[in-house]
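Agenda item 2: lysine complex prediction
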Amino acid sequence: MFVSNHINVNEKNHLSIGGCDSLDLAKKFGTPLYVLDEAVIRENCRRYVDSVNKFYNGNGMILYASKALCAGGVLKIADEEGLGLDVVSGGELYTAHKAGFPMEKVYFHGNNKSEDELRMALDFGVGRFVVDNEQELSALSRLAKEKGKTASVLFRIKPGVDAHTHDFIRTGQIDSKFGVALETGEALAIVKKAVCAENIAFCGIHCHIGSQIFDLAPFCEAASVMMGFIKEIKTECGADVRELNLGGGFGISYTEADDPLPYGTFMEAVSRVIHEEAEKHGVALPFILMEPGRSIIGPAGVTLYTVGNVKEIPGVRTYVSVDGGMADNPRYILYQAEYDFLNAGAAGSDKTEVVTVAGKCCESGDLLGEHVAIQPVRPGDILAVMATGAYNYSMASHYNRLPNPAVVLADGGSARVIVRRETYEDLVKNDVL
Ligand SMILES: Cc1ncc(COP(=O)(O)O)c(C=O)c1O
Ligand SMILES: N[C@@H](CCCC[NH3+])C(=O)O
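Presented output:
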């Protein structure tokens, strides 16, 4: 299993993150506050890198899916740990550029890259374009020619595998906006076109079946389908597929009810499929890429809030309102995502109350959790939401003009800001009066 934020409680019975007392962090940096445990991020990166060494003899690379949390300070850690990077927009690409991320290790994804984004990526010299469709392939070929460059490409394939996860985050099935389908012949057609396209170097294929997946079977099935397609490409186009990117999607534990696969089992099973299928089809083992986001950064994050009003509605429920909500964590309103809640100042005590944690936005659905267990909480207490490292900061909005919280990195008992808290001035700076 991935290293998670085992709930560390210090001698004061306070939640401790990266050796820092969470109440001290809240006091020093204010709330809402995203706190990341640096050691957990590094440990998760290392587990992935080690298993590429173990199961693929080092013939592969792990890309950090920056959509999970894209900030220069986190990208630097990914780079230091030897990972490459998955970016999906000009903004993520620009962040990587500004953080000094090695561009040859950047994979540029996206189902609707604009020509400006493609030009920027060509200028920066990104390692690979993960091309989504024929229109993009033609545009990329033309733009690369204009710049006298060659674009190295992978194609995003819909392997036709149905992953059991929330509908909004399932991507492997034919009815998906991402990629080209295998069963219609669309995937083979685009590879054929790429092999003779100008200023294009065909390198490989990519798939990503969805996110927060707990079953092993769809990952194995996708790996098998992709290896079969590698054989088909060899037969039909005479082209060798040197790279196979299997995407991300490995599920993590948000609450006790989540039961992720043992990590080693997952890596070993997928690698077994790859090796067996390579032998069966008589094709060379491709360079393997995986692009986890949530399973690297998710468990490393905790969000701290200050409790404001507590509203008890007799016979109905108790609303505990905090100073953030859907603007810093839209995952409950989007996916009814569940989390583990703590009173950070009584973290080791029993959870004797059941409450609904509400945000401060003008929206009834602005909740962080309904009917959740927690220690008794009073106004002024610090409430912690666990495992919020992924898809919280990166999906934050300014609804009701709430400034985005700061992000701090905690390690060895000290903490530093890697994203400053927004100010009201930041919120109005682009207004034109
Ligand atoms: C193409 C692609 N790669 C990687 C990821 C990362 O997925 P996860 O954070 O679930 O590991 C995603 C998100 O679902 C994705 O769309
Ligand atoms: N944003 C989603 C996952 C989407 C992953 C990116 N394709 C989540 O919070 O779970």
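Discussion summary: The first strand starts at residue 8 and ends at 9.
Owner for follow-up: CH.
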